[in-house]
Amino acid sequence: MIDAHAHLDACEPSPDELIARSRAAGLEAIVSVGMGIDSCRETVVLAERHDDVFAVLGVHPHQASSADAGRLDELEQLLGSPRAVAIGEMGLDYYRELAPRSAQRDLFSVELELAARLDKPVVIHSREADVDTRVLLDGFAGTVVLHCFSSPGLLEWALERDFYISFAGNVTYPKAEELRGAARRVPPERLLVESDCPYLAPQQKRGRPNEPAFIVHTLAVLAEVRGESAAELAQRTAANTRVAFSLP
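User: That's the sequence. What structure does it adopt?
Assistant: Structure tokens below.
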């Protein structure tokens, strides 16, 4: 198993403890995602300290009107680390709307340009922003991961574009039947699984801070929904994650 999207620097207890617990649970690797420049810096340090942790670095759409949106030169420097495998999470969030939509779109465009120039995959956050997400990504030719997939209206378009679709603990929630329906339709080679920790603990651990070790529960639900073996799905999603991010 590989956790395709975690925020280790935002977790308690310490990342080192959570990494140890993930290994005990059978995880081969964790893709840890920085949100903002200081978070990205911490994430690189963590990835450089642990061979089974890889870094995804970017400025989150919630921060599109913050000072971090003007620090992309620092982001580019951090992306020079050999442990940095993608840019993100970037995108649009019209649900919480913690930054003006115009600022979110501007930041998204600039981060996509950076990814194209550096030939890096992108990890996308899209919430209630289907139309603008499509418009902005239509011009991007690189590898795309739709993280914490929660937009069934984007699924057909995303599959036509050969995007990777990553599911988090919310796919296990009782009312998430539409998400589970989407998970049934994703081709085997395009499916990823993530914790998005410390957020969105799966139903079996709901009410607790999430952690990478808990993806076993998300995998079990996905396997049941798809009529597959959990062990085989764990191996396949791990292989998909390695391909998506060019992991060793």
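The mean pLDDT is 98.
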